[in-house]
Amino acid sequence: MSDQVSVLFVCLGNICRSPSAEGVFRHLVAEQEMTDNVRIDSCGTGNWHIGKAPDARAIAAAERRGIAIDDLRARQFRAEDLDSFDYILVMDRQNLADIREIWHQNGGTEPRLFLEFGQADLAEVPDPYFGGEDGFEHVLDLIQEASQGLLDDIRGRLA
């Protein structure tokens, strides 16, 4: 059994939900002194924002919770990611369908909906891009709750 687990968060453009998830989870893993055990990254299915920082509203919402994501830069999902990560966690069903199509052709780690690790009645993390500030706060609430469930799952895997 490896003593390191890798996690990839995926959304559409990699400027709102997945970098928020990367930042929140990175923060949680650091608090639990597990940074040597967990490698974390994020990406998008689309290519529009490659190389760009997260949305300013996502950065501000995360900062209000003491989480820095302004250092992250968007990248696009690659087929090789299926072999490079133990968890490939997508934010919504459309992202899941897009990544599963690549997975069916290439194999590797099967992608899953991130909120499977949470207690919320929602299956998808809603995209806050076209909404207001409260949408980013809601996304962070969902991500923080599911992140705890994910960390519990990883602890079991590393045990």
From TrEMBL:
Residues 5-153 form the Phosphotyrosine protein phosphatase I domain. Its EC number is 3.1.3.48. Keywords: Hydrolase, Protein phosphatase. The active site is at C11, R17, D127. GO terms for molecular function: protein tyrosine phosphatase activity. The keyword Cytoplasm does not apply. Belongs to the low molecular weight phosphotyrosine protein phosphatase family. The keyword Hydrolase applies. InterPro entries: LMW_PTPase, Ptyr_pPase, Ptyr_pPase_sf, Tyr_phospatase_low_mol_wt. This is protein-tyrosine-phosphatase. CDD domains: LMWPTP. PANTHER family: LOW MOLECULAR WEIGHT PHOSPHOTYROSINE PROTEIN PHOSPHATASE (PTHR11717:SF7), LOW MOLECULAR WEIGHT PROTEIN TYROSINE PHOSPHATASE (PTHR11717). SUPFAM superfamilies: Phosphotyrosine protein phosphatases I. It is an enzyme of class 3 (hydrolase). It comes from Marinobacter fuscus. SMART domains: LMWPc.
